Amino acid sequence: MAETPPRCLLIARQGPEDREDPIEDHLLELAELARSCGFEVWTRRRLKRPQVAPRTFYGSGQLQALADEAARQGVRHLICDDELSGSQVNAIQKLTNLTCLDRTGLILSIFEQRAQTREARAQVELARLEYELPRLKGAWTHLERQGGGVGLRGGPGETQIEVDRRMIRTRISQLKRELTHLETVRETQRQGRPQGLPRVALVGYTNAGKTTLLKALTGEGEPRDLLFATLDTTTRKAWLGQDFDPETGEGSTAPKHCLVADTVGFIRKLPHQLVAAFRSTLGEVRTADALLVVADAAHPDLEDHLRVVGATLREIGCAPEEGDAQPRLLVLNQVDRLHRPQKLDLKKRHPGAVQACALHATGIPEIRAWLRELIPGPPKPRELEDWELPEPTPAF
Length: 396
Ligand SMILES: Nc1nc2c(ncn2[C@@H]2O[C@H](COP(=O)(O)OP(=O)(O)OP(=O)(O)O)[C@@H](O)[C@H]2O)c(=O)[nH]1
Ligand SMILES: [Mg+2]
Description:
The protein has helices spanning 20-36, 60-72, 86-96, 103-114, 118-132, 136-139, 141-147, 156-192, 210-218, 272-277, 279-286, 302-315, 340-349, 364-374, and strands at 7-14, 40-48, 77-80, 99-102, 199-204, 234-239, 257-262, 290-296, 328-333, 354-355. The protein has two domains: 7-109, Rossmann fold; 196-382, Rossmann fold, CATH 3.40.50. The protein is globular. By secondary structure, it is of the alpha/beta class. Helices cover 44% and strands 15% of the residues. α1 links the parallel β1 and β2. The strands form two sheets. It has a six-stranded mixed beta sheet, with helices on both faces. Strands 2-1-3-4 form a four-stranded parallel beta sheet, sandwiched between helices. α5 (118-132) runs antiparallel to α8. The structure holds guanosine-5'-triphosphate and magnesium ion.
């Protein structure tokens, strides 16, 4: 018999300046993350709070009331959309008697569940340790208190923290060495791939349909309706058709191919520890000859998603306005879920994009034709869209 999933409660702080809609959207996304991590969501709540409470972030009164309700429903887990310190997580756990995860902790747990290859496992472990290191202090406050009164230093808690910190730092150095070695292996593999074939990376917001597009282009890939279903880069060969016109006899009959790499998806507030740890996997994106930027066109937050993708690409070193920038094609996927007027509106907003449905392979000939253009050399310079440009304020 299948085990029933653990139930959780989701919360986010709403400050006086915060509008309701974006917070609701963020909570909806948090619910998707929770589901992808194996939780069942009991309910989502916005907690109105003018200022952050230093100890418990949300304030003990509201938390206590929620904890009582959750206990009556048999809910044992609390997931917070806000980034919390280690001591805040501990204070909340103590007060509510619920296990508490913040958004970064939740994303890390999903990555831990999915990591399969040695490289992915090392990258995720590194990100986890970088996340835990500054949080250690909070975890040991109970021992520090046992250690002595005001003015006393070096009680048993303090010593334990030092031991733990040292162990974590040693492990971090080991993992970094291992990852540097694995990066060299990856580079050798890259060089060993068939020469002369352009390498194209699929990038985009998580769950946009990158793996489905890989399948439509190459016949391989296992799409899943989960956030961060793909962690490891998979590279497959795609057939791009021919450029031969039988009527005029012009063009070449030689079949054209390229290599397509599927990669880990992006998300709003993607923990910077993960971006840093996935440097080598994301190297596939940096070194690709071209990018197919896949977006879920039917998602209500499409434009936000594009801004996050633009900012994350910049963060990993892909800036479209630089001289050696890679050509990019925006693939507005999942248009089968849109009506005609919505598609026309999209056409106006993103005239250079291909509208596609990877699931039913529509738009694929246009993508193939664009990729074929890459073979003799990169396409002509193009005008950049708003989502690709640097922003005055951070997108996430
Ligand atoms: N209706 C519709 N669904 C699609 C389309 N493309 C993908 N999907 C669905 O969207 C979900 C996510 O697809 P994936 O291809 O796994 O998405 P991804 O971008 O690889 O996601 P991650 O690897 O988790 O970041 C799956 O349930 C797909 O069946 C499409 O064109 N139309
Ligand atoms: Mg995928």
